[in-house]
Amino acid sequence: MRLKQTFWGYKIYTIMWWCLAPLLWLGMAWRARRGQRDWHILSAQRFGRYNQPWDGQAPVWLHAVSLGEVRAAAPLIRALIDQGERVLLTHMTPTGGDELCRMWQAEMNAGLVLQRWVPYDFLGAMQGLVQHYRPRLTILIEREVWPNLIRASRLAGIPVVLVSARFSEKSFKQAQMLDRFSAGLMRQTYATIDLVMAQTEDDANRLLAMSAPHVQVTGNLKFDVQLPALAIQEGIDWREKFKRPLIVIASTREGEDAQFIATIQSYAFKQANPINQDPHTPLPLYVIIPRHPQRFETAAQQLEAAKLRYGRWSVLKESIQTSSEVALSTLESIDVLLGDTMGEMPFFYAAAHVAIVCGSFEPHGGQNFIEACAAGAPTVVGPFTENFAQAADSAQAAGAIVQVNNPYEAIEWAHKWVSDEADRQRYCAAAQTWLQNHIGATQAMMKAMVELETQRALQLAAPH
Asked: Which percentage of the chain shows pLDDT scores above 70?
């Protein structure tokens, strides 16, 4: 009965993919046009076809779908490279690909890391990648459980590992619904993963309920991320030289820019009144950094509509770094700096007197606030932190972050910290202690994968 269910499950899933693929491609084309980015929608790589020869050495295949997962995977990728592995990295989005190039360009040039677009989840396309590169291990990051990706690996005898796995109640219900629709395919897919390493006990329990057979709790890779030392030092140097406090509003997503711009507008009006000005504290400079590059122009238009004085980091950056008087004068005169470049979040976090991490003021599930804490910025998040639920709860309990209900409260906290250095430093110290208590996921994952491979080697060597 199970074999028959699985057969029909894959049939249903394949039909669903063929029916929905044109809509997916249209959506990708719209995002490509909007963001002026090439998604390689119908490229050969998206269908598992490769012109580039491969030398035959079996890599470790690691799939990180987009920007957040690429950054989260960095400690594990470094550990694999240090262990002597070659790593095949696949991604779905242009931002993920750009981040891979930025972070691992030297390793790519040395042949240690190979970057490719992930194929669409058709069995033939996934088998094309597997047969061309013949990886010896497949590693998936956080939630990237795709039936045909896993099936192609299993058919080729490649073990599959899901690391830093997070599985919220919402994701669990969605997986159950898809499982019913696909005749039990999702449970069967989870059941064939060789090893699952979950972020929390709650994640582990939900994964077990979806039939994942081998589940461990090893923690969150994001705690092990090492921020680039040069960017951190440059940010600290800028903060010490710049006269105005910096309030960094980071990773804004749809619906959040307008709310923060309106709040800044009201504060700017209030601060323009001499009665409200503190002669000992300069007016802060707000830095708004949209999460995705296709929204840079939208944020700029909203700033213009609000009649706020603003500058673009992409225009001012080079002049500021060479200490241009014109650029420095511009920074002194504007209300908002628009962070319209990619890959510079560590610099801005290190420069920040306060970091407000968005994606959490609208129901998007939150963005990674751990990096802000690691860079030494006292951190505020919004009410929607489902993607980081355990981390947000433990950080609040440790006094490492503040969680508020809306942008107005976030800006209120930011101004409080700007004028109260002692309280600001207390939160920074608590955040560092909290971080130290949660590192070690990478080491635990590497150990578990070595044990898995040892067990498989013994099983293959045992007489049948």
From this structure: 94
Answer for the pair 107, 36: CB distance below 8 angstroms, yes or no: no
272-to-262, 277, 287, 330, 348 alpha-carbon distances in Å: 15, 7, 19, 18, 26
CA-to-CA dists, residue 132 to 8, 49, 95, 121, 126, angstroms: 28, 8, 25, 16, 10
Using only the alpha carbons of the chain, give its radius of gyration: 24
Phi, psi of 414 (to 5 degrees): -60, -45
Beta strands in 64-158 (DSSP E): 87-91, 113-117, 137-141
Mean pLDDT of the residues in the chain: 91
Choose among 165, 158, 119: nearest CA to 141: 165
Phi-psi category of residue 447: left, alpha or beta, with phi > 0 → left and psi -120 to 50 → alpha: alpha
pLDDT score of 2 more than 50 = no
Residue with tokens 């006094």: 399
Residue 353, token pair as written in the block: 């007197």
Q: How far is CA 230 from the centre of its chain?
A: 21
In this predicted structure, what is the pLDDT of residue 349?
97
Name all domains of the chain by residue range, CATH numbers in brackets. 44-225 (3.40.50.11720), 229-436 (3.40.50.2000)
- 1 pLDDT tier (thresholds 50, 70, 90): very low
What residues contact residue 111 under an 8 Å CB cut-off, 6+ apart? 86
pLDDT in tens, 7-18: 788 989 999 999
**76-85 contacts at long range (C-beta below 8 A, 24 or more positions apart):** 76/139, 76/163, 76/164, 76/221, 76/442, 76/445, 76/446, 77/104, 77/113, 78/226, 79/442, 79/443, 79/446, 80/446, 81/107, 81/112, 81/113, 83/446, 85/59, 85/60
**Pairing assessment for the beta strands 379-381 and 354-357 based on DSSP bridges:** parallel
Catalytic residue of the set 69, 85, 99, 144:
69
pLDDT of residue 266: 87
Does residue 69 have an active-site annotation? yes
From the number of C-beta atoms within 10 Å of its C-beta (0-12, 13-18, 19+), residue 217 rates as: middle
CA dihedral (212, 215, 217, 222) in degrees, to 10, reads: -60
End-to-end CA distance of the chain: 27
Specify the pLDDT at position 423.
Answer: 95
User: Does 272 have pLDDT greater than 60?
Assistant: no
DSSP 8-state symbol, 354:
E
- For 4, phi then psi, to 5°, come to -65, -40
Looking at mean pLDDT, say which of 77-81, 175-179, 226-230, 315-319 comes out highest. Answer: 77-81
| H or E element at residue 305 | helix 296-305
Query: What is the predicted pLDDT for the residue at 280?
Result: 60
Above 70 in pLDDT, residue 5?
no
